[in-house]
Amino acid sequence: MKFICLSGFGQKAEVWKEVASALPDHQVEVAFSYKSEEGFHSFEQWADQVYQSLQQLDQPYMLVGLSLGGLLALSMADKPLPNCQGMVLSATPYKLKGNRAYALQGLIFRVIPAFVFQKWGMNKKEVLDILKDLSTLDFSQKLAQLPLPVMVICGSKDWANLATARDLAAKIPRSRLEILAGGGHEVNRDCPQEFAALLEEMVDWVASLQV
Q1: Looking at the chain, which runs of residues are DSSP E strands?
Q2: Which top CATH class is 2-94+139-209?
Q3: 3-state class of 99 per DSSP?
Q4: Structural domain spans, the chain
Q5: Taking Cα atoms as reference points, which of 14, 27, 15 lies closest to residue 199?
Q6: Predicted structure pTM score
Q7: Other Cβ atoms within 10 Å of 53 Cβ, number
């Protein structure tokens, strides 16, 4: 199976390396990470580019989204994705409108110096524009329309997202909830072997649904 990994803000491709190493029989590709040179000033613009790129794929794949990457995946919940076999959503909020933790994160980003963003390969103004855009997102109405099987993953120490993960799994028709013991927000980095094992389980689960 081809796994297309959508990273969170500021997360580099290297954090998926151990996950990929634990999946020798599968293809793991880190794609569509935020790059300041692409000049995105809105989440919608970014998500549209991701969707258009996915439409070009001619082989079966699964989307694996972490945090913001999960939001990118959810943005396509009500759109046709012919070759997508399922989604894995880790540490993914589905509603940022009125989310206090997210608002606090936005305030923290505002006081971080621009040169720090440059080290991350980001443009501070563009990041703040996207964060402002994200603050109005609410995918609640899309969840019941999601036809794909979805595995929702959350680290047991990701306290900000545990309740959301349970709600998310409850609202999606074909879903499984997996809590990884000892994992934090970046559970793919904290528990790479266990995360990879869940991706293997996802492949088997999807295959069983197609019988």
Answers
A1: 2-6, 27-30, 61-66, 84-90, 150-155, 175-180
A2: alpha beta
A3: coil
A4: 2-94+139-209
A5: 27
A6: 0.89
A7: 12
